[in-house]
Write a structure and sequence with these properties.
The radius of gyration is 19 Å and the shape is elongated. It has helices at residues 3-21, 37-53, 61-70. It has a domain at 34-84. The protein is built from 3 helices and no strands. By secondary structure, the chain is mainly alpha-helical. The longest helix is centred in the N-terminal third of the chain and has 19 residues, at 3-21.
């Protein structure tokens, strides 16, 4: 193994141990999602893709609809830009 590979492996193991140590006793992570328009749009897109690919998880229609309904409220009335202002690409 090379020195670079050894350093990368060591950094990976440290990061892995730190992440695993943050899990709840049940084996999952606990946290809160961001309330930004970007995170909402990402979640809506992910739910729509999962729902399109499989019915095994049930319907996400209400969550998708709720996210789509919320998104316009996250746009500033004065600037018409997302609340998490940054460059506008559209």
């Amino acid at each position: 193994m090379t020195l670079l590979h050894d350093r990368l492996e060591s950094a990976y193991q440290v990061a892995l141990a730190a992440l695993l140590a943050e899990r709840a006793p049940e084996g999952h992570w606990v946290g809160e999602l961001s309330t930004s328009a970007l995170s909402t749009a990402t979640a809506v897109s992910a739910l729509a893709l999962v729902q399109k690919a499989s019915t095994a998880h049930g319907s996400f229609d209400s969550l998708i609809s709720g996210g789509i309904t919320w998104l316009p409220s996250a746009v500033s009335v004065t600037s018409r830009r997302p609340c998490c202002a940054g460059p506008r690409f559209i």
